[in-house]
Specification:
There is one protein chain. The chain is mainly alpha-helical. The chain is about 80% helix and about 0% strand. The chain contains ten helices and no strands. It starts with a helix and ends in a 17-residue tail after the last helix.
Length: about 325
């Protein structure tokens, strides 16, 4: 990321991706260890979540008028999101910290990263309740939409067209809102780690950074969502349920390949978001003082002096 601010703010999606991959290559051993310890558990948990969710949705289709089953499904979704988002905080915090160390040319070892994890989690946990509330609310609304949609399809006496059209439009609106929240949340996590703002100020800061780059931020969120969802569906259908009559050995190999692909998608997605943060800062002419950021990173190892609330620098 040795670019002038003027060049950085105009980076395209492909250039951001190229810079993200270059960061991983600059410290291959470190990012490999980070991936094994933090990104891999999150990816495997997501695959398990996807497989079980698809099975529960198929059961939901068989019980469209039962109240207890949708309630159970909502409870399962809430607890699963809590667990997955908790794991994502670990992977997000460690990747953001590592990328910042590469950016400031700060030497970093994996043992230092592990010692920084408890302090990295502190600012992220302040932002976490608001993120969890949004995620649960959106998933609950989408689940209600799904239940109503299935009920309409199974009712032969109802006139389907207008209700289904309304439900579809509402689902698109909720999905678009969720996509924006996803992009905003990713920036919020990075702001929490790299800047001295907390609580609601993190949301305001990330929302301000996202202005002017909403389309690009939502594009990255959409690509990662589609890739992760596609891998999760393929894993559930082929590796778990044995679609297409695959043998156990073929399912095992396919499952390992899909898990590895998802790990790669998650790692690259986190790297891309870290670079995208710098692009947003440059776009709004908010430079980052490397020396102040260096001291801030030392703080996660218990070695810092206070970081000024406003970080300014001409170039990145």
């Amino acid at each position: 990321m040795d670019l002038e601010a003027e060049d950085l703010q105009h980076l395209s999606a492909s250039s951001i991706l190229a810079n993200s991959i270059a960061i991983a290559r600059s410290s291959t051993a470190h990012f490999f260890s980070l991936t094994l310890v933090f990104v891999l558990p999150f990816s495997l948990s997501f695959l398990a979540y996807s497989s079980l969710t698809l099975r529960l949705i198929s059961q939901l289709y068989l019980h469209p008028y039962s109240l207890s089953y949708p309630l159970f499904f909502a409870l399962y979704q809430s607890l699963s999101l809590l667990f997955l988002l908790s794991l994502s905080l670990l992977s997000t915090g460690t990747v953001v910290y590592s990328v910042a160390c590469v950016y400031t040319t700060k030497s970093i070892s994996f043992s230092h990263l592990l010692s920084a994890v408890p302090r990295l989690l502190q600012p992220l946990l302040v932002t976490f309740p608001g993120v969890l509330l949004r995620a649960v609310t959106l998933c609950t609304c989408l689940m209600v939409e799904l239940v109503l949609f299935i009920s309409l399809l199974q009712d032969p006496e109802s006139h389907h067209f207008l209700p289904i059209l309304i439900l579809s439009a509402t689902a698109v609106l909720l999905s678009t809102t969720g996509l924006y929240f996803s992009a905003e949340w990713r920036l919020s996590c990075i702001v929490s780690v790299l800047e001295e703002v907390r609580g609601r100020e993190v949301i305001r800061k990330s929302r301000g950074l996202l202005k002017g780059k909403v389309v690009l931020g939502c594009f990255f969120a959409l690509v990662e969502l589609v890739a992760s969802g596609g891998i999760g569906i393929a894993f559930a259908a082929a590796a778990v349920n044995g679609a297409a009559g695959l043998s156990f050995r073929a399912r095992l190999v396919l499952g390992i390949l899909l898990a590895g692909l998802l790990v790669l998608v998650n790692l690259v997605g986190l790297l891309v978001q870290s670079v995208f943060y710098h692009v947003c800062k440059a776009f709004h002419h908010e430079g980052i003082d490397k020396s102040s950021l260096y001291e801030h990173l030392d703080g996660y190892l218990g070695e810092s002096v206070p970081l000024s609330s406003s970080i300014e620098m001409g170039n990145i």
